[in-house]
Amino acid sequence: MNNAIQGNILTPSGWVHGELTFNQRIAAISGGGVDPALNQADYILPGFIDLHVHGGGGKDVMEGGDAVHTIAAVHAKHGTTSMLATTMTAPPEDIERALQGIGQAAAARGKGEARVLGAHLEGPFINGGKLGAQPPYARAATLADVNQLAALAPLRVITVAPEIAGHQQLVKQLSEAGMRVQVGHTLGSYDDGVAALQQGARSFTHLFNAMPGLHHRDPGMVGAALAHATYAELIPDLLHVHPGAIRTALRCIPNLYCVTDSTAATGMPDGEYMLGRQKVMKCLGGVRLPDGTLAGSTLTMDQALRNLVGLGLDLADASARVSTYAADYLGLSERGRLAPGAFADCVVLDRDLHLKAVYIEGEPL
After folding, report:
1. How far apart are the C-alpha atoms of 111 and 109, rounded to whole Å?
2. Paired sense of beta strands 231-234 and 255-258, if any
């Protein structure tokens, strides 16, 4: 027997006021077109998809073991129905331990957890001169290095600094192997960024952060993204990126999508937490190293949606940027949209955009 929810449903062809029926997948959507501004029913949107998650609930992905299960459950409560558990720059043994935990979580979704689609390998193949909040274990990569790690967990996204010797060829090799390669934690130039896109890179890791900024005579990596990218991820916590810069990126990059870059401090009180091997402090709404460097965030995807709407995006556009575009980037046609045959990953929000219900592959939280 199918389950059913009613409200203003955001479908790929527009808003429908009616009923969505489902089990694990969506069976049908019935009803008529509606302007949701004129109808006071709840909003039903695709579940959120977060491609950059380091932690939550006091747990860090780098701990390995069952940490990812706890993290996936914390983010599910905020409407994230699918996610990539994200590693960071660290000694090889730490990364391998983290990937083993990610691999186990990806193989079997626990009750009440977001679907772990695999790993986002954010380090160690980055530029040691642009670590941001990552520890100093950056190194160059070979295809053999990446393949060894890919045996431990599905590597869906890998962040690379393209200016490192050998990395342009690596970008080409990884892209041809089906991995999504992102440019990030880089000191590369505009030309390095353009070349990486030509080799198959598809996105930029937390756009604006940990990369050379835009100058009119030296457009830098940000300039390469704004001029040429179709996809890029951005942290819309309003701390990492100024609202004006967010609006600039929205005008330039058609499928800009949002991530949380969340840490163990997400969903927790102010205090000290771990980010890999480093201690970070949650206070004043942010997460920082002792020297004040931003070190990830405590953002959740439901708040990301509200922040985007607060910047002036209409709800359908904001929804695409916390769900559909991330699914499209990974090539997942059965997620990130409410349509018959797609997984029943749905969020129900009230008129103030606060969560009322979350469904993950048909399971109600």
Report:
1. 7
2. parallel
Within a 10 A sphere around the Cβ of 179, how many other Cβ atoms?
A: 22
Q: What local confidence, expressed as pLDDT, does residue 2 receive? A: 86
Token pair of 71, please? 């993290």
Write down the domain spans for the chain: 47-333
Omega of the bond leading into 124 within 30 degrees of 0 (cis)? yes
pTM for the complete prediction?
A: 0.97
Look at strands 43-46 and 286-288 and give their pairing.
unpaired
Residues 192-237 have pLDDT tens digits of: 999 999 999 999 999 999 999 999 999 999 999 999 999 999 999 9
User: Which pLDDT value is given to residue 278?
Assistant: 86
Q: What percent of the chain has pLDDT over 70?
A: 100
Give which of 326, 307, 185, 325 is closest to 242, Cα–Cα: 307
CA 176 to chain CA centroid, Å, is 22
Q: Is 191 a catalytic residue?
A: no
Cα(6)–Cα(41) distance, integer angstroms: 8
In the prediction, which pLDDT does 292 show? 86
Distance between start and end Cα atoms, the chain: 19
Of the residues 42, 60, 261, 302, only one is catalytic, namely 261
- From CA 23, how far away is CA 263, in angstroms rounded? 32
- Residue-wise pLDDT for 244-283, tens only, equals 999 999 999 999 999 999 999 999 999 999 988 888 999 8
DSSP bridge partners of 157: 120, 180
Per the CB < 8 A criterion, the answer to whether 55 and 30 are in contact is: no
Tokens of 138: 């950056």
Residue among 101, 45, 28, 74 nearest 315 (CA): 45
Q: Which of 146, 137, 135 is nearest to 169 (CA)?
A: 146
The CATH number fitting domain 47-333, selected from 3.10.560.10, 3.20.20.140, 3.30.420.40, 3.30.470.20: 3.20.20.140
